[in-house]
From TrEMBL:
Protein name in the entry: Glutamine synthetase family protein
InterPro entries reported in the protein's UniProt record: Gln_synt_N (IPR008147), Gln_synt_N_sf (IPR036651), Gln_synth/guanido_kin_cat_dom (IPR014746), Gln_synth_cat_dom (IPR008146), Gln_synth_gly_rich_site (IPR027303)
Cofactor: Mg(2+)
Family of the protein in this entry: Belongs to the glutamine synthetase family.
A Pfam family assignment: Gln-synt_C
All copies of domain GS beta-grasp, residue ranges: 15-100
EC nos: 6.3.1.-
SUPFAM superfamilies reported in the protein's UniProt record: Glutamine synthetase, N-terminal domain (SSF54368), Glutamine synthetase/guanido kinase (SSF55931)
Gene3D superfamilies named in the record: Glutamine synthetase, N-terminal domain, Glutamine synthetase/guanido kinase, catalytic domain
Every GS catalytic domain range: 107-445
Keywords from the UniProt entry: ATP-binding, Ligase, Magnesium, Metal-binding, Nucleotide-binding
Length: 445
């Protein structure tokens, strides 16, 4: 760590960095930033930067508000969108109390704690997100709703189009930040895009997702458009998900891989999936944390609505992707419910905890779904045991309220704050009188 700190201090001097932004997130997953002068960085490494945690969503109670932000030198990067004018760098921070204890409500610490539990059992957790978002002409909208920047569709190549230039610029900027990109393409909705980040350990991936959202927003501003990670901004176009591929490693060996097993999927892999399925409803208020998230889950267009798994079945909640011969290290499972607006630190914590519970308790994996689950009738799905995901945020809250797994994983403070925050959102939503109601009822009732 001392070598890394020396590298940061040397790089700041060599590149003429004028400001260093210290980044962390609140419990909802909003990025927070405080800029310090280069001369303050060395002190920040050893003593932290103090701030009032009670002013940040869910980070501390008013009576224990003093917190310290300690920058993680391994996350140091210069910000490419700042160019050569007042060069600026960033580091993610770990939040502690004044006596040096990790802050219980720091989402990054929640994930670190969950990863440590898995490490105690010999596992390292890797994730690979496919992040969807919409590009709009602006954040303003009229009676017709938001206006996408194009009318293209899935994998379309639009010569000279906004999205094409946008993705190229974004990918280059991400690579400059040390974030490897696997794919980028136009998605199914007009103005909808997807950029997939390469596999990395879950903590690095969560940091990368927070950086990714900032990059996408910055490039959009630069190009005169607006980017949104809202799960379902259009009622008649697909929502934006963040399908995430998950795998566990034991040392250098992929714990999900077993040559000769069905789909080359090991017993550990099957138990992990069983854990995801059993606890899917309990974790939904975090993986799908907004009222709008449930418009995506129940809006069709390949969003999962029912709890089941399948091999290469895109109607299932959990998919086991096609096995690549001689590539045992790539064995993985894909969780398809999580959306692009989730707090990645908390969402990854709960996905890992659910899967680990399946391993520890020896959950049995139910039979796979071979049919198109959406095409089945309700009675057929019931007969096959395919339970629905929560239909709305209030249903998700009810499941979370009863969940020992979520309470234990998030810790009491974060668990209670998330529930309080989501209950307040549902109350605010429930009191709305929507255009749908006025159009449907005003003139006839």
């Amino acid at each position: 760590m001392d070598k890394q700190r020396d590298f940061v201090l040397r790089t700041i001097e060599e590149r003429g960095v004028k400001f260093v932004r210290l980044w962390f997130t609140d419990v909802v997953g909003t990025l927070k930033s405080v800029a310090i002068a280069p001369a303050e960085v060395e002190g920040a490494f050893t003593e932290g930067i103090g701030f009032d945690g009670s002013a940040i969503e869910g980070l501390s109670r008013t009576f224990e508000s003093d917190l310290l932000a300690f920058p993680d030198p391994t996350t140091f990067q210069t910000l490419p969108w700042r160019g050569d004018v007042d060069p600026t760098a960033r580091m993610f921070c770990d939040i502690t109390t004044p006596d040096g204890e990790p802050a219980v409500a720091d989402p990054r610490n929640v994930l670190k704690r969950t990863l440590a539990r898995a490490a105690d059992r010999g596992f390292t957790f890797y994730t690979h997100p496919e992040i969807e978002f919409y590009l709009l002409k602006s954040s303003k909208y009229g009676p017709e709703g938001p206006q996408p920047v194009d009318s293209a569709g899935y994998f379309d190549n639009v010569p000279g189009g906004t999205a094409h230039d946008f993705r190229r610029r974004s990918v280059r900027m991400l690579e400059d930040l040390g974030i490897s990109v696997e794919f980028s393409h136009h998605e199914a909705g007009p103005g909808q895009n997807e950029i997939d980040l390469r596999y990395a350990d879950a903590l690095t991936t969560a940091d990368n997702i927070m950086t990714f959202r900032t990059v996408v927003k910055e490039v959009a501003i630069e190009q005169g458009v607006y980017a949104t990670f809202m799960p379902k901004p259009f009622s008649h176009y697909p929502g934006s998900g963040m399908h995430t591929h998950l795998s566990l490693f034991e040392g250098d060996a992929n714990a999900f891989y077993e040559p000769g097993a069905q789909y080359q999927l090991s017993k550990i892999g099957r138990q992990f999936i069983a854990g995801l399925l059993r606890h899917a409803n309990e974790i939904s208020a975090v993986t799908n944390q907004f009222v709008n998230s449930y418009k995506r889950l129940w809006g069709g267009d390949e969003a999962p609505s029912f709890i089941c798994w399948g091999h290469n079945n895109r109607s299932a909640l959990v998919r086991v992707p096609l096995y690549k011969p001689n590539k045992g290290q790539s064995a993985r499972v894909e969780y398809r419910a999580i959306d692009s607006a989730a707090n990645p630190y908390l969402a990854f914590s709960l996905l890992l905890a659910a899967g680990m519970k399946g391993i520890e308790e020896g959950y049995e994996l139910p039979p796979e779904a071979e049919d198109d689950v959406w095409a089945l009738t309700d009675s057929e799905r019931r007969a096959l045991g395919y339970r629905p995901l929560p239909a709305s945020l209030d249903h998700a809250i009810e499941y979370m309220e009863e969940s020992e797994l979520v309470a234990d994983t998030l810790g009491e403070h974060v668990y209670n704050y998330v529930l309080a925050n989501k209950r307040a959102e549902w109350r605010d939503y429930r009191t709305q009188v929507t255009p749908f109601e006025l159009q449907r009822n005003l003139e006839i009732l």
